[in-house]
Amino acid sequence: MHDVIQKRVLLAKEFHLSGIENAQKKDPLSKMMAVHNFHISIEIAVKSILLKYEIRSEKTLNIDFESMLNEVDQFEEFKSKGMRLPYRQEIRNLNLMRNMVQHHVIEPDESNMDDWRLFSYRFLKRIFNDYFEMDFDRASRISFINDEGLRMYLGEAQKKIDSDDYRSASCLVAGAFEYASISISSFIPKSSSEFFITSRLGRAGSASEVKDAIKDTLKRVDEVEHFSALLASGVSLSDYKKYKDSSPFAQIMLAGNIIYQTYAGKVFDKGSTTWLYSFVVNTLIKWQQLGLSPQIPDYLREAAIKSLDE
């Protein structure tokens, strides 16, 4: 049951974050989706309270929104402690707006979007703390990442962030991204140009320097293909540039292990590292949603985990 509750509350956070993303857009559909996302995030969180404290079973959670809020506030354990759900009126207003969107396709007023974002955030932050003893801002999303190896890298990175070791944390996060990016770019056909060009040059008696030059050129082609795959997967050019600026250079060796390099004087601070962590986690989840299955490839897994242990 603990795992079920944890996944539910993290899902509530996911919907809230999705709501924020949609609320930043200006088109009517995105605003309507944002209202839905904010409302669903609250609904999932409140239902998680009902489950955790055994107020209702999972099979009896299909009740109207206002009744659900009332059942939480009327629960004897909460009443004896003076606990009540916060921002009830604001949440009622959000529920009303959600109904208008869902049943009458009413476009939310852009001027109200910040209100929905702010009050849903404050509500979730309070109940995460009061009912689940969790910090909403620090609640980890990595449990949604399917690949165990990537979860291990990011879990260790979070520990390093907690201990203010931002350099090590940045290395681990970059490692997770580089291993995963190999797997999501695997759909690009492997070029056989290098074999045909270099073998032809060899038969013609060309100098080894020419062969090396062509190999370097084809290596660059591979890098461009890899970069194109990342952009095609939904990674924005500006975010990828910021990723490169915020992370060490992570190189995966032929044996599968990874080494990290950086230039003298490069600073890894809390701001850059937490952004890097969020970017990589968000990107991995987005890749999963697109069906790209980010993972540490099987042929690299043993060396990757060994690199993590070391």
Describe this structure in words.
The protein has 310 residues and is mainly alpha-helical. Helices cover 68% and strands 3% of the residues. It has 13 helices and two strands. The chain has helices at 2-23, 28-52, 65-74, 76-80, 88-104, 113-132, 148-162, 166-184, 193-203, 208-232, 237-246, 270-289, 298-309, and strands at residues 249-252, 258-261. A two-stranded antiparallel ribbon has the order 1-2. A hairpin with a 5-residue loop joins strand 1 (249-252) and strand 2 (258-261). Helix 11 crosses helix 12. The longest helix has 25 residues, at 28-52. The radius of gyration is 24 Å and the shape is elongated. The two termini are 35 Å apart. The model is unreliable at 188-193 (pLDDT under 50).
What is the compact description of this entry?
The protein is mainly α and 310 residues long. Helices cover 68% and strands 3% of the residues.
